[in-house]
């Protein structure tokens, strides 16, 4: 660097004045912006609520303000990407723009944008886009369910849990199917399809609600939270399998004998595919891979998508859901052994939990927009609600009778049926499959039947999900015994209940990302 002497012969660096000016500007900026920094306003030990809210607005932002900013940046970034790829499709008037709006607004906005004249932009969504998005969301939720099934825990299930899983569900399916056949005049196969959709208990509502009671010590002395959560897995498997069989029979054509046997055969094909692909994932990718979790997640989701979309491509759509569930269950059978000794959870579950956070609002938004309120018949709504409550009444009675010969007292026996009231996630995932299949096949005579199933599934979620969540949260502490943290639990009781480590059974990946909101009275934000 060159230097020049001044008039006194003293060497002066030419950048000295520049550095001084930069320091002055930096000091001025620091003085101006310091009041806006969160570090300048540390929270006291016991801050008031207004003080905590005020802290959110300092830099860097925190709390709800940070969450809103994150959502805005994510939306703007991905919108820009979609515009770059699809051009006008992602702009107002295109097919992708309404899906972005639905993603933001989820269910309620989906219903508004699909029905209010003038802003019913959801009608611009092409059926192929809507169906594809719903099927991807279905793949994610079924994959999570399969990962959550713990084979070790299932082996140790007591007979009372098996009864609790199957007896109420079978009774509700039977009553709902008969009622749908004679009240709505649905064909028997479609009546049973509707019954299997309505019969599933929602793990997205039941699991976090029961975990909230469990963490406060309610029901631990009898293992009630673990028993109910464990039974949810078998309940979901039964409903998905039955729905797949009825779906295959309903859309089969040709020889009657082949039509009857094709439904169960589709279920077997789905299980066979799941076994093959799941075992393949035991060995691929190799365990020494530096990106093991990434590759496992990618292959697992690819297998699920292959089952769902591949079954539709070959006209065996009934095998898709069960195949997707089986792939995840079989793959996790070996993966869990790698983490069981360390007490850690399978990290692939965290990946699917994040994916569900992405597709969850889109799924409910699309389902909300698919229901055309103006075309709803009052008979469909009224009879649908009647069938729902008729089935729920039978389920609750049978659930109470199921636990009659157990060590539970009267109050605890009353709580078991109430905990099986909520319906949400699975109804949203499979409720639209029959309608989508009818649209894809161009079966004009079956589309109204698919619409009926979809409409009644939406009614079931809107009614049963919030009521069930409130019942568990409010009535649970009144009916269940509270165990102190230091109080031991009887060994005899533990033998009749599922072990405590089995709380991860069924959609266990939903537990972690929902635990923060487990005390929320309404489950609709967690569907």
UniProtKB/TrEMBL annotation:
Topology in the lipid bilayer: Multi-pass membrane protein
Cross-referenced InterPro entries: Cation/H_exchanger_TM, CPA1_transporter, Na+/solute_symporter_sf
Boundaries of every Cation/H+ exchanger transmembrane domain copy: 97-473
MF (Gene Ontology): antiporter activity
Region span, Disordered: 1-20
Record GO cellular component, one term: membrane
PANTHER family: CATION_H+ EXCHANGER DOMAIN-CONTAINING PROTEIN, PTHR31102
Name of the protein in its database record: Cation/H+ exchanger transmembrane domain-containing protein
Originating species: Candidula unifasciata
């Amino acid at each position: 660097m060159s230097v020049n002497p001044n008039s006194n012969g003293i060497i002066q660096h030419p950048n000295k004045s520049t550095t001084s000016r930069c320091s002055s500007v930096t000091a001025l900026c620091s003085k101006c912006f310091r009041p806006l920094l969160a570090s300048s306003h540390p929270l006291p030990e016991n801050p008031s609520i207004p003080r905590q809210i005020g802290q959110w607005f300092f830099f860097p932002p925190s709390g709800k303000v940070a969450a809103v900013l994150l959502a805005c940046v994510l939306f703007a970034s991905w919108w820009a990407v979609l515009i770059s790829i699809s051009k006008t499709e992602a702009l107002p008037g295109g097919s992708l723009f309404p899906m972005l709006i639905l993603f933001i607004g989820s269910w309620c906005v989906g219903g508004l944008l699909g029905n209010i004249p003038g802003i019913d932009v959801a009608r611009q969504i092409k059926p192929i886009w809507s169906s594809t998005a719903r099927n991807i969301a279905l793949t994610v939720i079924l994959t999570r369910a399969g990962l959550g099934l713990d084979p070790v825990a299932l082996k140790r299930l007591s007979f009372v849990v098996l009864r609790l899983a199957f007896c109420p569900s079978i009774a509700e399916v039977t009553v709902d199917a008969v009622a749908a056949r004679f009240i709505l005049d649905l064909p028997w196969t479609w009546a049973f399809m509707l019954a299997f959709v309505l019969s599933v208990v929602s793990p997205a509502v039941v699991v976090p609600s029961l975990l909230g009671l469990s963490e406060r010590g309610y029901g631990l002395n009898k293992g009630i939270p673990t028993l109910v959560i464990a039974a949810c897995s078998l309940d979901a498997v039964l409903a998905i399998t039955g729905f797949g069989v009825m779906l295959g029979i309903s859309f089969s054509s040709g020889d009657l004998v082949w039509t009857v046997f094709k439904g169960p055969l589709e279920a077997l094909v789905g299980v066979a595919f799941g076994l093959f692909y799941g075992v393949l994932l035991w060995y691929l990718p190799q365990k020494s891979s530096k990106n093991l979790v990434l590759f496992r997640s990618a292959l697992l989701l690819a297998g699920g998508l292959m089952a769902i979309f591949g079954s539709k491509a070959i006209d065996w759509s009934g095998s898709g859901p069960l195949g997707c569930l089986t792939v995840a269950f079989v793959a996790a059978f070996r993966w869990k052994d790698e983490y069981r000794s360390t007490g850690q959870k399978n990290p692939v579950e965290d990946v699917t939990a994040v994916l569900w956070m992405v597709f969850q609002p889109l799924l409910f938004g699309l389902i909300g927009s698919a229901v055309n309120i103006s075309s709803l018949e009052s008979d469909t709504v009224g009879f649908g609600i009647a069938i729902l409550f008729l089935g729920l009444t039978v389920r609750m009675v049978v659930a109470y009778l199921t636990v009659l010969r157990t060590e539970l007292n009267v109050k605890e026996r009353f709580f078991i049926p109430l905990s099986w009231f909520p319906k949400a996630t699975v109804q949203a995932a499979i409720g639209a499959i029959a309608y989508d299949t009818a649209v894809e096949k161009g079966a004009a005579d079956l589309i109204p039947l698919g619409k009926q199933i979809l409409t009644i599934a939406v009614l079931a979620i809107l009614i049963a999900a919030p009521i069930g969540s409130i019942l568990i949260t409010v009535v649970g502490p009144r009916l269940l015994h509270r165990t102190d943290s230091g109080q031991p639990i009887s060994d005899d009781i533990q033998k009749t209940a599922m072990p405590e480590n089995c709380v991860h059974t069924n959609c266990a990946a939903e537990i972690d990302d929902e635990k923060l909101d487990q005390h929320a009275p309404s489950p609709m934000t967690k569907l």
